[in-house]
Amino acid sequence: MGHLTSRHTLTVNLANSKPTVQTAAFTQMHAIQGPTNVKFLVDNIALGTVGIYGFTFDYGDGSEIVNIEPTFTNNLPTTLPISALEHTYYQTTMTASELTARAIINYLSHDGIAPLSAVHNIIIKQSAENMIEKNLEIVNSQLFTIAGSATPIFNIESSDNIVYPCSFAEIAAPTLFDDGIYINTDPETGIDLNASYLYNSKIALLEDVNSAALSALSGAGFTIQGKSGKRYTMAFNYNNETLRYSYAQDTDNILLSATIPAGMNIETLQNSITATFNHLVGTEFSTITKESSAVLFYQSNQLPPEATSYTYTTTVSSTDPALADQITAFSIEDRTYSYTTNIHGPAGSTGLSAVNRVRTNYTVNNVVYGANEILIRAL
Predict the structure, then answer these.
(1) Residue 47 CB coordination number (10 Å)
(2) How does pLDDT run across 298-351, given as a tens digit for each residue?
(3) Residue 153 in contact with residue 167, Cβ under 8 Å?
(4) Which end of the chain is less enclosed by CB atoms within 10 A, N or C?
(5) Nearest to 235 by CA among 251, 224, 219, 246
(6) How far, CA to CA in Å, does 349 sit from each of 340, 341, 346, 352?
(7) What's the N-to-C CA distance of the chain in angstroms?
(8) Which domain holds residue 314?
(9) Total number of domains in the chain
(10) What's the rounded Cα separation, in Å, for the pair 22 and 19?
(11) CA dist list (Å): 191 to 24, 188, 194, 195, 340
């Protein structure tokens, strides 16, 4: 049981030269925890040419103040008969505390100079009496089976090189508390695992737009699907010329037009496309962005009903096929996903997960739960 009498140690060095003009003051700060043996070194205090006439040390914890008488040797300057003082500090309060130890060195006067002194203030901060600060480190561990349960047994070593064998085992079942969060992991039967959903449609503008200018858009256009399943066509003409193609126009097929700016290039054409479709963001498209030389029409990467069922493949119409040199203005790509494969979402290629099905308002057994509770529905 040697650890019950173990002590921390601390060495404090008191050093100064003889003051020549006025009293000199020095301050240092240290932190201790638990019973601590502190050694105050005094052999680095310069005594000057004539020495000192008094040395007083107050430990600051209520202990008796120590007065040390200097000694004379063959009429030479006085010296201190010790090289260090030692004292043990104890912490007996339940909260952290602070004390100040003080050393006062009184110098003899000479050459008409009034006696001066040097003061050392040593601030000592103590941790709470019931706090354990042992800098513990696990040195080894093993795993055993006790009563059918895996139980670790390990050794912990403290900064005092004391080894504590430790283990833990569950001796009572934990108490569970209802924190008002409900997680529903019903299988959501009737799901078509082969269904495809639209993540985004990419309309890439080809270099012919730069090289052939308006000729590349003569009769060209593209048709894409919105979230509702409606199809939106953007066809290009110039000076209100009649379109070569006949585009269906009804409640499910909408024809859009755009003003083609003078000096058209890929960038200005991108701006015209995004401006033409901008009023559909939030209803038919979650967002529309420009990327390099393309325009991307985003839907979502979530489960139904947030998902957009993929019912139409994006198409493009090119320039007049009667022309000798066909000019292509667009290329297209539809990116889709399913329950089992969703490379576009946070679930990665492993499929859709409950991370996309968080609801903050729902009803269970005719009870309506508010925004401070969540329901997670998982596949």
Answers:
(1) 18
(2) 988 777 777 889 999 988 876 555 554 566 678 889 998 887 777 765 544 444
(3) yes
(4) N
(5) 219
(6) 8, 5, 9, 9
(7) 59
(8) 197-337
(9) 3
(10) 6
(11) 85, 7, 9, 9, 11
